[in-house]
Amino acid sequence: MSARLNAAQPYAVGLFRIVVGLLFTVHGAASLFGVLGGAMGTHGGTIDAGTWPGWYAAVIQLVCGGLVLLGLGTRGAALIASGSMAFAYFDIHQKHALWPIQNGGEPAAMFCWSFLLLVFTGSGAFALDRLVARRTSGAEEPTAERATVTA
Length: 151
Description:
Helices cover 74% and strands 0% of the residues. By secondary structure, the protein is mainly alpha-helical. The radius of gyration is 19 Å and the shape is globular.
C-alpha cells in the first residue's frame, strides 16, 4: 500500500498545489477587482490601491497564487505567500485573540502552512516548472553531445 501511495505522491502534491494556488489567486482577485463578492468587509467592493497592508497583500495573493497555480517558480512564490500569511496572522489576527478559531485567522494560518509545505515539497506533477526544465535540459544535451562527438 505504501509503495502505491508513494508512487502517487507527485500527483497528490500537484493537485494540492493547484487547489491552494487557485484559492489564493481568487482571494487576491476578489480583493483587487471586486469579483466573486469582492474584498471581505466591503460588500462587493475592492481595496483602495496602495493601502497598507491590504492592497499589497492582495497583489501578493494574485501574483504568487497564480505562479503557484501554474507551477512556475513554485518554491519562491510559495515562500513569499507563506510569509505574507504569517504576517497577516501575527499582525492582523493575533492581536484580537490567541487562537485562530477565536481571531478569524484560520485562513491565514492554513495558507501559511500550506505554502510552507510547498516550499519543501516543490511543485509536484502538472507544473510548468517541469516543462521548462525539460526544455532547457533537452536543449543543452544535443550541444553537449555535439561537443563530445567533434572533440
